[in-house]
Design brief:
homodimer, about 280 residues, alpha/beta, TIM Barrel, eight-stranded parallel beta barrel, about 45% helix, Xyl_isomerase-like_TIM-brl (chains A, B)
Chain lengths: ~280, ~280
């Protein structure tokens, strides 16, 4: 076996979420991943729409790249009927786009509280209702809805689903082939129930996506762009990946890091560093 | 009944944590609270030490003010033996100070991970060990150790105890008169297990302190000073206070808001606003 073959085999499960190298266009992403022997990517709706969904799908196919997930649907906690209907329509469009891109996973960031709302349990129930409304359409299009619990620091303004346990409580109202969950180390590492949640999710085949990023402090203003490069923080990335494997997960490991420090650097250099860190801290 | 009597009765359970009006000296705090008919305060070690612990205790007594809690002990997650011994010594000093101030409650902010550590379960176990080492000394001095779970966004650098459930798992290794928990709405509002935790804590007489602050976004850089004035955010403050009452809690409700916007204003104006918000959103 040559070093290159070893490298390629090491990276067989690695997927690069495009936000990790946001400085790159879609063609740069496709070429950069191919050059490193990385075979899958996670995509975001806005840059894909800008490039053209069909063109993006063709570009990925030409490079032999699998699309592990599309981010994101969700933001459907509005209680106002008109805004709820708008959100559902937008989620149907996201399902269409996922199907066109050939991915079976639409990541859902559920949304926060309504203006002035103080009842987070009710908002979580609206999430379950919206998912119920979307399941038939998603199932028709071969797309699984993947509920992503976000760190509790996002509970009010971005995602009322804060733990894997909460995500599973909603997902388990539906068939596992239609609704799964996202296990993202950044959001779940602090939770002493995360391992039990991973076992529960894996046992029922509901891990739709496994994403990795590290936790570093101080958090920046707004806290959205504070994710750390793999190995720079305190998350037991390998430990959590092993737990998912033990629970029966066989899918890709998607690196999703929002970090302006990485975006300011050369994309190829960042991607090589991600691959190296993946080998050292996740594999 | 006059309006003033109504006012005084309304504020009977209100305690003002001195950090809420950090712009005030201890004498200003004592006078300001007395003027509004507020009968209790929560104090912090650093300003109390600066003023002199005995003098601070005398000042509070002269104004007829009860001290509901002293913040803070804790920060005892160091694995290095010398640093652990230092932390325990500092906690014994905090116990001495609490006893001198006449409060039976020392709030513990447990501390974060050690440099380079990726095992949060081990760090939590070191918290339990340290508390075990401190209990006899605290009990001798009539001081109860009150474990405060902090929001999970502080898990790596400030407090590895993130939920009321985790705090109770540690507290319940000891007698309830020696180790209790702090229920702070800011840290716990997002948790769907918080209500069950409050019932569990109240049922065993372990609610040592009930603190209120509201959750507002965007969070500032570092996230420490982002707490909201009561009623400005999304926390069901009254609902959580009622749950604590139902669980048998009869103690004070301490307002602890770290907010530079409040600190920039006139202290008396802020205190009057806090009292008004307390009536409208907590009482």
């Amino acid at each position: 076996m040559t070093a290159d073959q070893g490298t390629a085999r090491d990276l067989a499960r690695l997927s690069i979420n495009q936000e990790t190298v946001k400085q790159w266009s879609l063609p740069e992403l496709a070429e950069g991943c191919t050059a490193l022997g990385i075979g899958s990517v996670g995509l975001w709706r806005a840059p894909v729409q800008e490039y053209g969904v069909r063109d993006a799908a063709a570009l990925m196919r030409e490079h032999g790249l699998a699309v592990t997930s599309l981010c994101r649907g969700g933001f459907f906690t509005a209680s106002d009927p008109a805004r709820r209907a708008e959100a559902l329509a937008d989620n149907r469009a996201a399902i269409d786009e996922a199907a066109m891109l050939g991915t079976d996973t639409l990541v859902l960031v559920s949304g926060g509280l309504s203006e002035g709302e103080r009842d987070i349990a009710a908002a979580r129930e609206r999430v379950a209702d919206a998912i119920g409304a979307l399941v038939p359409y998603a199932a028709e299009h071969g797309v699984r809805l993947a509920i992503e619990p976000l760190h509790p620091m996002f509970a009010s303004d971005r995602c009322v689903v804060s733990t894997l346990g909460q995500a599973l409580d909603i997902a388990e109202r539906f068939a596992p082939e239609h609704v799964g969950v996202v296990v993202d180390t950044y959001h779940l590492w602090w939770d002493d129930r995360a391992e039990a949640g991973i076992a529960r999710a894996g046992g029922s085949g509901r891990i739709a996506s496994f994403q990795v990023a590290d936790w570093v402090t101080p958090l920046p203003e707004g806290v959205l762009l504070g994710r750390g490069q793999l190995g720079d923080g305190c998350v037991d990335l390998r430990g959590l990946r092993v737990r998912a494997d033990e629970a029966g997960y066989r899918g890709q490991v998607e690196v999703e890091i929002f970090n302006p420090g990485l975006w300011a650097r050369d994309g190829a250099e960042v991607l090589a560093e991600v691959a190296d860190r993946y080998r050292r801290h996740v594999l």
